[in-house]
Amino acid sequence: MVIKVGIVGCGFVGNIHLKAYREVKGVEVIACCDINEERAKKFAEENNIKHHYKAYKKMIENENLDVLSVCTPNYNHKEPTILALDAGINVLCEKPMAMNAKEAFEMLQAYKKSKKILTIGHHHRFNSESQILKRFINGGVIGEIYYGRSQSLYRNFIPWWGEFHLKKKSGGGTLIDTGAHLIDLILWLMGFPEVKSVSGATYAKFGNRKPVKDEPWGFCKWKEYDVEDFASGYVRFKNGATLVIESAWVSNIEENWKGTQQLIGDKGSATINPLKICSGMHNTLVDITPVQLPQVDPHNEEIKWFIDCVRGEREILVKPEESYTVQRIMDAIYKSSEMKKEIQL
Fold first, then answer.
1. Cβ distance 3 to 66 under 8 Å?
2. What's the confidence (pLDDT) of residue 211?
3. Domain spans of the chain?
4. How far apart (Å, rounded) are the C-alpha atoms in residues 120 and 327?
5. pLDDT of residue 220
6. Fewer CB atoms inside 10 A, N or C side of the chain?
7. Which residues of 4-32 are buried (b: 16+ CB within 10 A; e: fewer)?
8. pLDDT of amino acid 215
9. CATH architecture of the domain with range 3-121
10. Taking a C-beta distance cutoff of 8 angstroms, is the pair 305, 317 a contact?
């Protein structure tokens, strides 16, 4: 049986999803949709997709879809996801889950009611390093994890395209953009302990002022900019563990990007970027560096896994309840920064 797919959003991410679906046997992208009808038409013609639409509601009504990929900007994640779930369609929605925790909760409720699959595009879990480290953690190599640190720091990179710079369109800046991926990854590695409280601070130091000659990001919408370009957070979990979060579009660090994930347990520690496990064996300190890692495209792996779930051959890896937790933490960091106090969850 061929699995029939529709894609909402025919931009950069839509192309990534299309490419990945075409790597999976027994899957056909039969329809696409974009608010810019010319872009939808071009996307369909260039990729031999049978039907294109301007309105996703029409596409959901007219096409007998098994799967919908939601590749729209953040402000338009909730509605197509809920419409598709209500119509009995499985959904892969790009990250972040939604604009805020309230929207994410509505999506979660629709998912539970539908009995269909909903997963969020946190593709970092499907990297070789992430999968290997998770196996080591599950095997007890680093023991009980009591501390984590999640970093996504760019030296100087404010996205000037699209509407990343508008809170009403994106929900926030660097935290909800790149930070969402890394928060999801480290919480997954930690086993998603239950959150007790969150504190945080956000800063807009660069994007909201006119660039000078030696500032290379080329940002051209600085007068409209109303989101953060740096965010930090501190999470306490009910099991006693803690997590530090740092996310920045601009941080003036030495590297162009630093995305280190660090975990400390009572038997050892581990990092990603680079992948290394530090522990002790036979009265000796040892560093374990896995070698000959499989070379995979995490987007392709994510969609292969998703299609296997649709076929009933696997359990979903990125559960919507977990993505809702990520959204609640981000919301709490924003709220804590605004109110200048710790937020209890």
1. yes
2. 72
3. 3-121, 125-296+326-344
4. 11
5. 65
6. N
7. bbbbbbbbebbbbbbebbeebeebebbbb
8. 63
9. 3-Layer(aba) Sandwich (3.40)
10. yes
In this structure, whether the domain defined by 125-296+326-344 belongs to CATH 3.30.360.10 is answered with yes
CB 311 within 8 A of CB 152: no
Rounded alpha-carbon distances, angstroms, from residue 279 to 132, 140, 141, 285: 16, 11, 8, 6
Query: What backbone torsions phi and psi does residue 117 show, to the nearest 5 degrees?
Result: -95, 135
DSSP 126: G
H or E element at residue 268 = strand 268-272
Looking at residues 257-275, what average pLDDT do you find? 95
Which are the contacts of 216, defined by CB distance < 8 A and separation ≥ 6? 156
State the Cα torsion 332-333-338-341 to the nearest 10°.
80
pLDDT (mean) for 2-20:
98
| pLDDT the model gives residue 109 | 98
Number of C-beta neighbours around residue 121 at 10 A = 27
Of 177-186, 203-212, 221-230, the one with minimum mean pLDDT is: 203-212
d(CA 37, CA 319): 32
CA distance linking residue 186 with residue 124, whole number of Å? 10
DSSP lists the bridge partners of residue 68 as 6, 91
The 8-class DSSP code of residue 56 comes to: H
DSSP string, 323-343: HHHHHHHHHHHHHHHHHTS-E
Residue that has been written with the tokens 């501390």 in this structure: 147
Return mean pLDDT, the chain: 95
Q: Which of 320, 145, 319 is nearest to 240 (CA)?
A: 145
- Cβ–Cβ < 8 Å for 94, 157: no
pLDDT (average), residues 57-75:
98
SS3 content of the chain, % helix, strand, coil (to 5): 35, 25, 40
pLDDT of 227 strictly over 80: yes
Is 60 exceeded by the pLDDT of residue 272? yes
In this structure, the number of other CB atoms found within 10 A of the CB of residue 141 comes to 17
